[in-house]
Design brief:
heterodimer; A: mainly beta; 3-stranded antiparallel β-sheet; 1 helix; 11% helix; B: 172 residues; alpha/beta; Rossmann fold; 4-stranded parallel β-sheet; 5 helices; 4 strands
C-alpha cells in the first residue's frame, strides 16, 4: 500500500481480527476464524496509519 | 474532578522533550449516540488518533466500570490504535483510585489493538488531591507519574519503530 499522505511504501504492521460489517463478509467467515481480517499499514515516512480488508483469510 | 487529573497529566507529558500532547475531553466530541462504532467517526478525532503514538486515558470509575461515553468514543476507531501505546490513569473518590476501572478497561484496549503498559496512576480520594484551581496538593504522586511516563514513552517509541519497520509475519 502507498501512503496517501507522503507517497512512501507503507509497512504491513498488523492483521487485526474484526467483526464483519456486511452480510457478504459475514457469509465468508469461517467458524474457526470467527471474524474477518483487517490489514493495518504504517508509513515509515510520516507515520500515517491505513487499513484494508484482507482478500484472503 | 477527573479534569484536574487529566490536566496534570497533560502538563507532565508536555514537559518531556520532543513530546507533543493534547488533552481531549470525550464529552466535547461531536459524536452521535444513535449509532456506534466506526459509522459515527469524528474526522478530527480520528486524525488525532492517527497521528498519535500513545494515549493516556484518564478515567473516573463509575460502579466499578468505565464511563459509557468513553467506551462509545473509543469504539469509533480501530486502525488508528493498532500497535500504539496506552496507559490508564484511574480516578475515584474512594481508596482504590480507579483500580477497578483500570482492570475493566484493559481488555477493551487490548481488543482495540492498543498495547497497555504495566504502570498505572491511581488518584485515590481525588477530592482531596487538588485545590479548586486544579493545583496538585500532594506531590508524592509525581514520582509515580514520572515512572508511568517513562514506560509509556519507551513503549511509544518502540512501537513507532515497529509499526514502520517490522512487518507482520516476521519479515521486515
Amino acid at each position: 500500500m502507498t501512503c496517501p499522505k507522503c507517497g512512501a511504501e507503507m509497512n504491513h504492521q498488523a492483521d487485526k481480527l474484526v467483526h464483519p460489517v456486511t452480510r457478504e463478509e459475514a457469509a465468508s467467515m469461517t467458524t474457526a476464524l470467527d471474524g474477518v481480517i483487517e490489514e493495518v499499514f504504517a508509513c515509515p515516512g510520516c507515520g500515517r496509519i491505513e487499513s484494508r480488508r484482507a482478500t484472503e483469510p | 474532578m477527573s479534569e484536574h487529573a487529566a490536566e496534570l497529566m497533560r502538563a507532565e507529558i508536555a514537559k518531556r522533550p520532543g513530546v507533543v500532547t493534547e488533552l481531549i475531553d470525550v464529552a466535547e466530541l461531536p459524536i452521535p449516540v444513535d449509532d456506534a462504532g466506526e459509522s459515527v467517526k469524528d474526522p478530527d478525532f480520528s486524525e488525532k488518533m492517527n497521528r498519535a503514538d500513545a494515549l493516556v486515558i484518564v478515567a473516573p470509575e463509575y460502579n466499578h466500570g468505565y464511563p459509557g461515553l468513553l467506551k462509545h468514543v473509543l469504539d469509533t476507531n480501530l486502525k488508528e490504535y493498532v500497535h500504539k501505546a496506552a496507559g490508564i490513569v484511574g480516578v475515584s473518590a474512594g481508596v482504590f483510585g480507579g483500580a477497578r476501572v483500570i482492570q475493566n478497561l484493559i481488555p477493551v484496549l487490548r481488543e482495540l489493538g492498543l498495547v497497555t503498559i504495566f504502570w498505572d496512576v491511581n488518584f485515590t480520594t481525588v477530592q482531596s488531591r487538588f485545590d479548586e484551581s486544579g493545583k496538585l496538593l500532594d506531590e508524592s504522586f509525581l514520582p509515580r507519574i514520572e515512572k508511568f511516563l517513562d514506560e509509556l514513552c519507551w513503549m511509544a517509541e518502540t512501537l513507532r519503530h515497529g509499526r514502520s519497520h517490522v512487518t507482520t509475519g516476521g519479515s521486515s
